[in-house]
TrEMBL record:
It comes from Exophiala viscosa. Residues 99-110 have a biased composition (Basic and acidic residues). One of its GO terms (molecular function) is protein-macromolecule adaptor activity. Residues 113-130 have a biased composition (Low complexity). GO terms for biological process: proteasome regulatory particle assembly. InterPro entries: TMA17. Signal peptide: none annotated. PANTHER family: TRANSLATION MACHINERY-ASSOCIATED PROTEIN 17. It comes from the Eukaryota. Residues 99-136 are annotated as: Disordered. This is Uncharacterized protein.
């Protein structure tokens, strides 16, 4: 692991997200989930490489037994980061629920809690409608974020903390 900057502790992260708009909480969760997916794919590739070393009969027995220590260490460090990131997602979820909202999780296909986000026949997002239980679909969240960007460009500067 790098000896550089250390991640902020979970308690500080929880404090930092308290003032963020709900759509930013979901955006951050999506960003973290994307990072987790990349780390998991990387770990799978590293493990595959280690497995090729341990099963390569052309290598000396000692080398096969040892595998690749650097790759093994990288996998271990990635698991630590993945666990920390999962904790962050849980903190984001708790913050949404603390505010009285219901947490929804979107999968890689844009589904929210198992139901597809609405789209028109040409694949564009459908007109926003309030999701069940006060939740927003991905299309609704995207629309709100676009509206906020337009507001920001028009001089409505929102104070806040970027994580």
């Amino acid at each position: 692991m790098s000896n550089g900057a250390q991640p902020i502790p979970a308690e500080q992260f929880a404090l930092a997200i308290q003032d963020l708009p709900v759509e930013n909480l979901y955006s951050k969760a999506h960003e973290i989930q994307n990072s987790i997916s990349h780390l998991e794919r990387s770990n799978a590739q590293l493990q595959e490489y280690i497995d090729t070393i341990t099963s390569d009969t052309s290598l000396p027995e000692a080398t096969r037994q040892e595998g690749d220590k650097d790759c093994s260490e990288a996998i271990h460090e990635n698991v630590i980061v993945i666990n920390r990131q999962k904790e962050r997602i849980e903190l984001l979820k708790q913050e949404v629920e603390r505010r009285g909202g219901r947490w929804h999780e979107a999968d890689s296909e844009g589904k929210v809690n198992g139901s597809s986000a609405a789209t028109t026949t040409n694949g564009a997002p459908a007109a926003p409608t309030q999701g069940a239980g006060g939740r927003l679909t991905d299309a609704q969240l995207q629309q709100q974020m676009m509206e906020r960007l337009v507001e920001d460009e028009n001089g409505n500067d929102h104070e806040g903390m970027h994580l």
